[in-house]
Design a protein that fits this description.
The chain is α+β, with helices and mostly antiparallel strands and about 600 residues long. Helices cover about 60% and strands about 15% of the residues. The protein is built from 16 helices and 11 strands. Strands 2, 3, 4, 5, 8, 9 and 10 form a 7-stranded antiparallel beta sheet that branches. A hairpin with a 2-residue loop joins strand 8 and strand 9. Helix 12 packs across helix 14 (about 445-510), helix 13 (about 380-400) runs antiparallel to helix 14 and helix 14 (about 445-510) runs antiparallel to helix 15 (about 515-550). The longest helix has about 70 residues, at about 445-510.
C-alpha cells in the first residue's frame, strides 16, 4: 500500500517518494533491525485480526449507541426517565413459541389481559420494532460523525516481486502508518510514516531500506472556515438523535393508545355480541309466547309472523356480530405480531373495571390545555428544532459560495542510517508552505444548494404553522369528544334503565292482553340499542380521555415495554351531582337563548 498522506508538493509528484527512498542507503534483509520492523508489523496485523472479530465490532457499536441514547434521554426527560432499550427483538419471543406449538399440530389458546397485550405488542409488533431500529440507526450515525472528528489512524503493508523477462527481478516490501485529524477551525492535519525495503535479486546485493516521516496541514481561510461550518455534520447528527428519542417516546404513547383502541374495540364488539345473543333468545321466547297465545285464540296470526320475522333478523345480527368480532381479533393479532392460527381471548373484566372508575365531567379549560400542549408536546419541540436547523443551513450553504483559499504547510523528514531505519535526520528536513486559491468561477452546484436551503427554511416555517394549527384543532376536538362522551354516557345510562323497565312492563301488558307484539318488539329493540350505546359511550369516554392525555403529552406508558396508568383518567374531573349538572345545563341553555335573542335584535 502506498503512503497516501503527503504534503501538497509531494502529492503532486508521485515519483518524489520513490526518488527520496532511492537516495537512502542499503540494508540487508537479514539484519536485526529489519527483522524487528517487519516482525512487529506482522504481529500488529495478527493482533488486530484476532482481537477485532465481527461480533466484537457489533458489541462495540451497541455499547456506544446505548450510551448515547441513555445520555440523550436523561437530558430530555431527566435522570428518573430511564427506559431500558435494546434494538434486537426478544430471542425467545412469544410468536416463536406459538409457531413451534402450531408446527406440532396444536392450536394454542392465549388469554391476554390488557397489560399483557401491551407488553406483547412492545416485544412482537413489527411497527414497534421498526421504530426501535430507526432510533438505533440515528444514534449509530452519530457515532460515525464523532469518529470523523477524532484522530483516525490507518496503516498497511504491500509486498511484491516483479521483473523484466529473465534479466532482472526486484522484490519490495512497503509499510505505512498514518493519522488524520479535523480541527474545529476546518484545518486538516495529516501525519504519516512510511518504511520501504527493496532488493534487486539478479545483482546479488542486499536489501535497501528507507523511511520517511511526513506532517502536513491545510487550513481553509474562506470557504470551509470556522467551527460552525466544520462541525455542522456532527451538530446535525447530535440534534437528529434528540429528535429520534422524542419521536420514539411519542410513538410509544401513540402506539399504546392505538393498541388500547383495538383491545377496547374487541371488548365492545364482544359485549355487543352478548347483547345480540340475549336479544335473540328473548325474541325466541316471545315468538313461542305469541304462538301459544295464537293457539288459544288470544292473538292474531300476523303477530306470530311478526315475532318470527324479528327472531330471524336477530339471528342474522348475531351471525354478523360474530363475523365482525373475528375480523377485529385477526387485525389485533397482526398488530401484536402473533400467528393467525392461535385462539385469542381478551379480558372482558376491563370494561367492568373502567365502569367502576366512573365517567366524570372534565374540568380542564381550553386555555389550560393549549398551554400544557405547547409546553410538553415532543413533536412540537422537534418541528421548532427543525426550523432552527433549516435557518442554520442557509449560513452553511452560503459559506460554500465563497472562493476557496487554503493555507498549506508540510514537513518531510527522512532517515540516514542504513542500520537504524528509525534514526531520522531532523537537520535535513524538507518543508513547504503555500496558498491554494480556488476562484468562484463556477458555483452552480453550490448556488443550487443555497437556494434549496432557503426553500427548505420557508417550508420548515410552514411546518411550524401547520403543526401549531393541528395541535390547537386536536386539543379542541379532544376536549369536545371527552365532554360529548361524558354527556352521552349519562344519557345512555338513563335510556338503558328506561328501556329495561319498558321491556318488563310491556311483557306484563302482553300477558294481560293490553299490548301488541309490535310494542314488545320495539321495547326489545330499544333495550338492545341502549345496552350497546352504554358500552360504546363508556369506551368512547375512556379512549377520548386517553387521547387527550396523549395530545397533552401527559400519558404515562411505563418504563419497560408498554403499560397505561388509568389513574390518569381521574385528572381534571368533577364529582358534581346530577342536580348541579342539570342546573348548570339549564343556565347554559338560557345564556345561549339570550345570545340568540340579542343577535336577532341586531
Amino acid at each position: 500500500m502506498q503512503f497516501e498522506y503527503l504534503s501538497p508538493r509531494l502529492a503532486r509528484e508521485p515519483q518524489a517518494i520513490a526518488a527520496r527512498l532511492d537516495r537512502q542507503q542499503r540494508l540487508h534483509w537479514g539484519r536485526p533491525a529489519c527483522r524487528a520492523t517487519v516482525g512487529a508489523l506482522l504481529a500488529a496485523v495478527c493482533a488486530v485480526h484476532v482481537g477485532c472479530s465481527a461480533e466484537a465490532y457489533r458489541s462495540e457499536a451497541d455499547s456506544e449507541v446505548y450510551e448515547i441514547l441513555d445520555e440523550t434521554r436523561e437530558k430530555i426527560f431527566g435522570p428518573d426517565a430511564d427506559v431500558p432499550f435494546r434494538v434486537e427483538a426478544a430471542s425467545a419471543s412469544l410468536r416463536a413459541q406459538l409457531l413451534a406449538n402450531i408446527a406440532q399440530g396444536e392450536t394454542p389458546k392465549l388469554h391476554l389481559s390488557l397489560e399483557e397485550a401491551l407488553r406483547i405488542a412492545a416485544e412482537n409488533s413489527r411497527d414497534f420494532q421498526s421504530q426501535k431500529e430507526r432510533l438505533y440507526n440515528n444514534a449509530l450515525a452519530l457515532t460515525g460523525q464523532r469518529n470523523r472528528y477524532s484522530t483516525i489512524f490507518s496503516g498497511g503493508s504491500l509486498a511484491e516481486v516483479g521483473g523484466v523477462a529473465d534479466d532482472t527481478a526486484i522484490g519490495s516490501v512497503r509499510s505505512d502508518l498514518s493519522a488524520t485529524q479535523i480541527l474545529a477551525s476546518g484545518a486538516r492535519v495529516l501525519g504519516g510514516f512510511v518504511n520501504s525495503f527493496f532488493r534487486t535479486f539478479t545483482s546479488g546485493g542486499g536489501w535497501n531500506t528507507s523511511s520517511l516521516l511526513n506532517l502536513s496541514i491545510t487550513q481553509p481561510l474562506l470557504a470551509g472556515f470556522g467551527r460552525t461550518v466544520t462541525l455542522e455534520p456532527l451538530t446535525q447528527a447530535e440534534r437528529n438523535v434528540v429528535y429520534a428519542v422524542r419521536d420514539y417516546e411519542r410513538f410509544r404513547r401513540t402506539f399504546a393508545v392505538a393498541m388500547l383502541e383495538d383491545y377496547m374495540s374487541i371488548l365492545e364488539q364482544e359485549n355487543n355480541l352478548e347483547n345480540q345473543i340475549r336479544n335473540f333468545e328473548s325474541l325466541k321466547l316471545n315468538k313461542a309466547r305469541q304462538y301459544a297465545l295464537a293457539q288459544a285464540g288470544r292473538t292474531p296470526k300476523f303477530e306470530v309472523d311478526q315475532a318470527e320475522q324479528q327472531e330471524f333478523a336477530a339471528q342474522d345480527r348475531v351471525i354478523n356480530a360474530r363475523a365482525q368480532l373475528a375480523t377485529l381479533i385477526d387485525r389485533f393479532k397482526i398488530r401484536l405480531g402473533l400467528p393467525m392460527a392461535i385462539d385469542l381471548e381478551l379480558d372482558a373484566g376491563v370494561l367492568t373495571k373502567l365502569s367502576e372508575l366512573g365517567v366524570k365531567e372534565l374540568t380542564l379549560s381550553e386555555s389550560e390545555a393549549l398551554a400544557t400542549a405547547f409546553e410538553r408536546r415532543l413533536d412540537w419541540q422537534n418541528v421548532l428544532g427543525s426550523a432552527v436547523d433549516a435557518e442554520r443551513q442557509i449560513g452553511i450553504t452560503a459559506n460554500a459560495l465563497q472562493a476557496g483559499l487554503d493555507l498549506t504547510g508540510a514537513v518531510d523528514v527522512g532517515n540516514t542510517d542504513v542500520k537504524k531505519p528509525f534514526d531520522f535526520d531532523w537537520k535535513q528536513y524538507e518543508w513547504a508552505v503555500g496558498v491554494n486559491l480556488d476562484l468562484p468561477l463556477n458555483r452552480v452546484p453550490q448556488r443550487n444548494v443555497y437556494r434549496q436551503a432557503i426553500i427548505a427554511r420557508d417550508a420548515a416555517k410552514r411546518s411550524v404553522d401547520d403543526l401549531e394549527d393541528n395541535i390547537k384543532a386536536a386539543i379542541r376536538r379532544a376536549l369536545r369528544d371527552v365532554g360529548a362522551s361524558w354527556r352521552s354516557y349519562r344519557i345512555q345510562k338513563k335510556a338503558e334503565d328506561l328501556a329495561s323497565d319498558r321491556v318488563k312492563s310491556t311483557t306484563k301488558l302482553i300477558e294481560a292482553g293490553r299490548a301488541s307484539t309490535r310494542d314488545y318488539l320495539e321495547s326489545e329493540q330499544a333495550r338492545l340499542q341502549s345496552q350497546n350505546a352504554v358500552t360504546s359511550a363508556l369506551v368512547d369516554y375512556v379512549l377520548n380521555k386517553l387521547r387527550l392525555l396523549r395530545d397533552l403529552e401527559l400519558l404515562d406508558v411505563g418504563e419497560t415495554g408498554l403499560e397505561i396508568d388509568f389513574a390518569g383518567l381521574e385528572r381534571w374531573t368533577s364529582d358534581a351531582s346530577e342536580a348541579e349538572i342539570e342546573a348548570r345545563d339549564i343556565e347554559a341553555a338560557r345564556t345561549e337563548s339570550r345570545r340568540g335573542d340579542a343577535r336577532e335584535d341586531k
